[in-house]
Amino acid sequence: MSMPSEAIGRIQWGPLTFGPGSPYGVEACLGLDDLPDVRGDDTNRPNQHGEYSGADYTTARTIQIGLAIRADSPDQLRDLKLALRAATQPGRAPAPLQFLDWDCVAYGKVRRRSIPYDAHFLWRTGEAALEFYCPNPRLYSVAERTASTTAYSPSAGRTYNLVPPRAYGASGASGRLTITNAGDSEAYPVLRIDGPVAQPVVEATAPNGGDEDDGDAAATTTTLSITGTLQTGEYLLIDTRTRAVLLMGSAPRRDWVRAGSQWPVLSPGPNEIAYRGAALPGAPGQTSLLTVTWRDTSL
Model-level pTM? Predict the structure, then answer.
Protein backbone atom coordinates (compact mmCIF):
# COMPACT_ATOMS: atom_id res chain seq x y z
CA MET A 1 0.00 0.00 0.00
CA SER A 2 1.50 3.34 -1.05
CA MET A 3 1.95 6.03 1.57
CA PRO A 4 0.30 9.43 1.04
CA SER A 5 2.62 12.06 -0.42
CA GLU A 6 3.05 15.63 0.75
CA ALA A 7 3.36 16.63 -2.92
CA ILE A 8 0.02 18.15 -3.86
CA GLY A 9 0.02 16.54 -7.30
CA ARG A 10 -2.66 17.26 -9.87
CA ILE A 11 -5.36 19.90 -9.49
CA GLN A 12 -8.42 19.90 -11.75
CA TRP A 13 -10.37 23.09 -12.41
CA GLY A 14 -12.90 22.93 -15.21
CA PRO A 15 -11.16 21.79 -18.41
CA LEU A 16 -7.65 22.50 -17.08
CA THR A 17 -5.30 20.32 -15.03
CA PHE A 18 -2.50 21.92 -13.04
CA GLY A 19 0.55 20.07 -11.75
CA PRO A 20 2.55 17.05 -12.99
CA GLY A 21 2.15 16.29 -16.68
CA SER A 22 0.69 19.72 -17.51
CA PRO A 23 2.24 23.03 -18.60
CA TYR A 24 0.86 24.62 -15.42
CA GLY A 25 3.21 23.75 -12.56
CA VAL A 26 1.93 24.25 -9.02
CA GLU A 27 4.35 26.44 -7.06
CA ALA A 28 2.18 27.22 -4.03
CA CYS A 29 -1.15 26.34 -2.46
CA LEU A 30 -2.50 28.24 0.52
CA GLY A 31 -5.70 27.71 2.47
CA LEU A 32 -6.36 24.03 1.80
CA ASP A 33 -5.01 22.61 5.06
CA ASP A 34 -5.65 25.83 6.98
CA LEU A 35 -8.62 26.23 9.30
CA PRO A 36 -10.90 28.99 7.96
CA ASP A 37 -11.61 31.91 10.26
CA VAL A 38 -13.74 30.87 13.22
CA ARG A 39 -17.01 32.64 14.00
CA GLY A 40 -17.63 32.14 17.71
CA ASP A 41 -21.11 32.36 19.23
CA ASP A 42 -19.86 34.04 22.42
CA THR A 43 -21.58 36.58 24.67
CA ASN A 44 -20.30 38.75 27.50
CA ARG A 45 -20.94 37.72 31.10
CA PRO A 46 -23.05 40.49 32.67
CA ASN A 47 -21.33 42.09 35.66
CA GLN A 48 -18.53 39.54 35.47
CA HIS A 49 -15.18 39.04 33.80
CA GLY A 50 -15.10 36.90 30.72
CA GLU A 51 -17.66 35.54 28.30
CA TYR A 52 -20.11 32.69 27.86
CA SER A 53 -18.70 30.57 25.03
CA GLY A 54 -21.08 29.07 22.49
CA ALA A 55 -20.50 26.80 19.52
CA ASP A 56 -17.76 27.69 17.04
CA TYR A 57 -18.44 27.83 13.30
CA THR A 58 -16.09 28.60 10.43
CA THR A 59 -16.48 31.23 7.78
CA ALA A 60 -15.85 30.65 4.06
CA ARG A 61 -12.60 29.06 2.91
CA THR A 62 -10.16 30.90 0.64
CA ILE A 63 -7.70 28.84 -1.44
CA GLN A 64 -4.81 30.49 -3.27
CA ILE A 65 -2.84 28.68 -5.97
CA GLY A 66 0.40 29.87 -7.54
CA LEU A 67 1.26 28.53 -11.00
CA ALA A 68 4.39 28.42 -13.13
CA ILE A 69 3.52 28.35 -16.83
CA ARG A 70 6.01 26.61 -19.15
CA ALA A 71 5.87 26.77 -22.94
CA ASP A 72 8.12 26.03 -25.91
CA SER A 73 7.52 29.30 -27.72
CA PRO A 74 6.06 32.77 -27.14
CA ASP A 75 2.98 31.81 -29.17
CA GLN A 76 2.37 28.72 -27.06
CA LEU A 77 2.85 30.72 -23.87
CA ARG A 78 0.22 33.18 -25.04
CA ASP A 79 -2.17 30.30 -25.83
CA LEU A 80 -1.66 28.85 -22.36
CA LYS A 81 -2.38 32.20 -20.74
CA LEU A 82 -5.53 32.67 -22.81
CA ALA A 83 -6.74 29.16 -21.90
CA LEU A 84 -6.15 29.91 -18.21
CA ARG A 85 -7.98 33.21 -18.52
CA ALA A 86 -10.95 31.55 -20.23
CA ALA A 87 -11.20 28.87 -17.52
CA THR A 88 -11.14 31.33 -14.62
CA GLN A 89 -14.06 33.59 -15.40
CA PRO A 90 -16.46 34.75 -12.64
CA GLY A 91 -19.10 32.14 -11.99
CA ARG A 92 -22.70 32.08 -10.80
CA ALA A 93 -22.32 29.05 -8.54
CA PRO A 94 -19.41 27.24 -6.87
CA ALA A 95 -17.73 24.58 -9.01
CA PRO A 96 -15.47 21.66 -8.03
CA LEU A 97 -11.79 22.40 -7.43
CA GLN A 98 -10.39 18.86 -7.32
CA PHE A 99 -7.07 17.87 -5.74
CA LEU A 100 -6.96 14.52 -7.49
CA ASP A 101 -3.93 12.94 -5.83
CA TRP A 102 -5.12 13.93 -2.36
CA ASP A 103 -8.68 12.65 -2.98
CA CYS A 104 -10.05 16.04 -1.99
CA VAL A 105 -12.48 18.49 -3.57
CA ALA A 106 -13.58 21.98 -2.55
CA TYR A 107 -16.39 23.93 -4.17
CA GLY A 108 -15.53 27.50 -5.05
CA LYS A 109 -15.55 30.42 -7.45
CA VAL A 110 -12.63 32.38 -8.85
CA ARG A 111 -12.46 35.74 -7.11
CA ARG A 112 -8.98 36.89 -8.13
CA ARG A 113 -6.63 36.14 -11.03
CA SER A 114 -3.19 37.56 -11.76
CA ILE A 115 -1.22 36.68 -14.93
CA PRO A 116 1.64 39.20 -15.08
CA TYR A 117 3.79 39.86 -18.15
CA ASP A 118 7.57 39.47 -17.67
CA ALA A 119 9.98 39.71 -20.63
CA HIS A 120 13.03 38.58 -18.64
CA PHE A 121 12.30 34.90 -19.33
CA LEU A 122 12.39 35.05 -23.13
CA TRP A 123 8.60 34.78 -23.34
CA ARG A 124 8.62 31.03 -22.70
CA THR A 125 7.75 30.95 -19.00
CA GLY A 126 5.25 32.86 -16.96
CA GLU A 127 3.48 32.96 -13.65
CA ALA A 128 -0.12 33.13 -12.51
CA ALA A 129 -1.90 33.46 -9.18
CA LEU A 130 -5.51 32.34 -8.57
CA GLU A 131 -7.77 32.84 -5.57
CA PHE A 132 -10.86 30.69 -5.02
CA TYR A 133 -13.69 31.67 -2.67
CA CYS A 134 -15.39 28.61 -1.16
CA PRO A 135 -18.59 29.62 0.69
CA ASN A 136 -18.89 26.04 1.96
CA PRO A 137 -15.58 25.54 3.81
CA ARG A 138 -15.83 21.74 3.89
CA LEU A 139 -13.45 19.51 1.96
CA TYR A 140 -14.91 16.34 0.46
CA SER A 141 -13.63 13.09 -1.01
CA VAL A 142 -13.59 13.23 -4.81
CA ALA A 143 -15.65 10.04 -5.10
CA GLU A 144 -19.13 9.61 -3.65
CA ARG A 145 -19.72 6.59 -1.39
CA THR A 146 -22.96 4.62 -1.64
CA ALA A 147 -24.51 1.86 0.47
CA SER A 148 -28.00 0.32 0.49
CA THR A 149 -30.20 -1.92 2.59
CA THR A 150 -33.75 -3.23 2.47
CA ALA A 151 -36.11 -2.25 5.27
CA TYR A 152 -36.02 -4.37 8.40
CA SER A 153 -38.10 -7.51 8.23
CA PRO A 154 -37.71 -10.40 10.72
CA SER A 155 -37.74 -12.99 7.95
CA ALA A 156 -35.83 -11.06 5.30
CA GLY A 157 -32.33 -10.80 5.17
CA ARG A 158 -29.43 -9.27 3.66
CA THR A 159 -27.41 -6.12 4.26
CA TYR A 160 -25.35 -5.18 1.26
CA ASN A 161 -23.08 -2.43 0.04
CA LEU A 162 -23.37 -1.21 -3.53
CA VAL A 163 -19.63 -0.50 -3.58
CA PRO A 164 -17.71 -3.79 -4.00
CA PRO A 165 -16.95 -5.96 -2.12
CA ARG A 166 -20.49 -6.77 -0.99
CA ALA A 167 -21.13 -8.19 2.50
CA TYR A 168 -24.22 -10.33 3.09
CA GLY A 169 -25.64 -10.71 6.59
CA ALA A 170 -27.61 -13.48 8.25
CA SER A 171 -31.39 -13.72 8.38
CA GLY A 172 -32.90 -10.86 10.37
CA ALA A 173 -29.95 -8.51 9.72
CA SER A 174 -31.83 -6.63 7.03
CA GLY A 175 -32.36 -2.95 7.68
CA ARG A 176 -28.88 -2.17 9.08
CA LEU A 177 -25.74 -0.64 7.61
CA THR A 178 -22.35 0.35 8.97
CA ILE A 179 -21.12 3.45 7.16
CA THR A 180 -17.67 4.94 7.70
CA ASN A 181 -16.98 8.64 7.22
CA ALA A 182 -13.21 8.66 6.69
CA GLY A 183 -13.01 12.45 7.13
CA ASP A 184 -12.60 14.41 10.35
CA SER A 185 -15.86 16.40 10.22
CA GLU A 186 -19.57 15.56 10.08
CA ALA A 187 -20.86 14.45 6.67
CA TYR A 188 -24.40 15.17 5.48
CA PRO A 189 -25.74 12.18 3.53
CA VAL A 190 -28.39 12.10 0.83
CA LEU A 191 -31.05 9.47 1.50
CA ARG A 192 -33.14 7.80 -1.16
CA ILE A 193 -36.12 5.69 -0.08
CA ASP A 194 -37.72 3.46 -2.72
CA GLY A 195 -41.22 2.07 -2.21
CA PRO A 196 -43.38 0.26 -1.57
CA VAL A 197 -43.32 1.39 2.09
CA ALA A 198 -45.46 3.30 4.58
CA GLN A 199 -44.10 5.61 7.29
CA PRO A 200 -40.38 4.85 6.79
CA VAL A 201 -37.93 5.62 9.61
CA VAL A 202 -34.16 6.15 9.37
CA GLU A 203 -32.01 6.06 12.50
CA ALA A 204 -28.32 7.02 12.60
CA THR A 205 -26.17 6.09 15.59
CA ALA A 206 -22.63 7.42 15.98
CA PRO A 207 -20.26 6.70 18.90
CA ASN A 208 -18.68 9.63 20.70
CA GLY A 209 -16.25 10.17 23.50
CA GLY A 210 -18.67 9.35 26.31
CA ASP A 211 -18.31 10.41 29.94
CA GLU A 212 -14.72 10.90 31.01
CA ASP A 213 -15.61 9.93 34.59
CA ASP A 214 -16.83 6.42 33.86
CA GLY A 215 -14.85 5.84 30.66
CA ASP A 216 -17.84 4.40 28.82
CA ALA A 217 -18.38 5.37 25.22
CA ALA A 218 -21.72 7.04 24.72
CA ALA A 219 -23.62 7.08 21.45
CA THR A 220 -25.73 9.70 19.73
CA THR A 221 -28.82 8.56 17.84
CA THR A 222 -30.92 10.69 15.49
CA THR A 223 -34.27 9.55 14.14
CA LEU A 224 -35.92 10.81 10.96
CA SER A 225 -39.56 9.71 10.60
CA ILE A 226 -41.58 10.13 7.42
CA THR A 227 -45.40 10.12 7.55
CA GLY A 228 -45.99 9.51 3.83
CA THR A 229 -46.53 6.37 1.77
CA LEU A 230 -44.53 5.34 -1.29
CA GLN A 231 -46.04 3.02 -3.87
CA THR A 232 -44.05 0.63 -6.04
CA GLY A 233 -41.94 2.69 -8.47
CA GLU A 234 -42.02 5.82 -6.27
CA TYR A 235 -39.04 7.18 -4.34
CA LEU A 236 -38.29 9.97 -1.89
CA LEU A 237 -35.03 11.95 -2.02
CA ILE A 238 -33.85 13.54 1.25
CA ASP A 239 -30.89 15.93 1.39
CA THR A 240 -29.88 16.19 5.05
CA ARG A 241 -27.74 19.30 4.48
CA THR A 242 -30.30 21.45 2.66
CA ARG A 243 -33.20 19.56 4.33
CA ALA A 244 -34.99 19.21 1.02
CA VAL A 245 -37.50 16.33 0.84
CA LEU A 246 -38.52 15.59 -2.75
CA LEU A 247 -40.93 12.98 -4.07
CA MET A 248 -39.56 11.52 -7.33
CA GLY A 249 -36.66 13.94 -6.94
CA SER A 250 -38.70 17.07 -7.71
CA ALA A 251 -42.02 17.41 -5.83
CA PRO A 252 -41.56 19.00 -2.37
CA ARG A 253 -42.76 16.85 0.53
CA ARG A 254 -41.18 18.66 3.48
CA ASP A 255 -44.49 18.30 5.36
CA TRP A 256 -43.96 14.52 5.42
CA VAL A 257 -41.24 14.92 8.07
CA ARG A 258 -42.79 14.04 11.43
CA ALA A 259 -42.56 16.72 14.13
CA GLY A 260 -39.64 16.08 16.46
CA SER A 261 -37.56 14.30 13.83
CA GLN A 262 -33.81 14.88 13.68
CA TRP A 263 -31.72 15.02 10.52
CA PRO A 264 -29.13 12.23 10.35
CA VAL A 265 -25.47 13.17 10.02
CA LEU A 266 -22.41 10.92 9.71
CA SER A 267 -19.82 11.55 12.41
CA PRO A 268 -16.15 10.77 11.67
CA GLY A 269 -15.60 7.04 11.88
CA PRO A 270 -18.19 4.23 11.78
CA ASN A 271 -21.91 5.03 11.92
CA GLU A 272 -24.76 2.57 12.29
CA ILE A 273 -27.81 3.17 10.07
CA ALA A 274 -31.11 1.41 10.77
CA TYR A 275 -34.02 1.47 8.32
CA ARG A 276 -37.54 0.24 8.94
CA GLY A 277 -41.01 0.80 7.56
CA ALA A 278 -44.45 -0.76 7.27
CA ALA A 279 -45.21 -2.97 4.28
CA LEU A 280 -48.20 -1.92 2.21
CA PRO A 281 -51.30 -4.17 2.28
CA GLY A 282 -50.98 -6.88 -0.31
CA ALA A 283 -47.24 -6.29 -0.87
CA PRO A 284 -45.43 -9.66 -0.80
CA GLY A 285 -42.53 -9.33 1.63
CA GLN A 286 -40.63 -6.10 2.26
CA THR A 287 -38.97 -4.77 -0.88
CA SER A 288 -38.40 -1.13 0.12
CA LEU A 289 -34.80 0.04 -0.26
CA LEU A 290 -32.80 2.75 1.51
CA THR A 291 -29.77 4.10 -0.38
CA VAL A 292 -27.31 6.34 1.47
CA THR A 293 -24.90 8.52 -0.53
CA TRP A 294 -22.16 10.58 1.11
CA ARG A 295 -18.65 11.95 0.73
CA ASP A 296 -15.94 11.75 3.38
CA THR A 297 -15.89 15.25 4.88
CA SER A 298 -13.22 17.38 6.58
CA LEU A 299 -12.61 20.96 7.65
Answer: 0.81
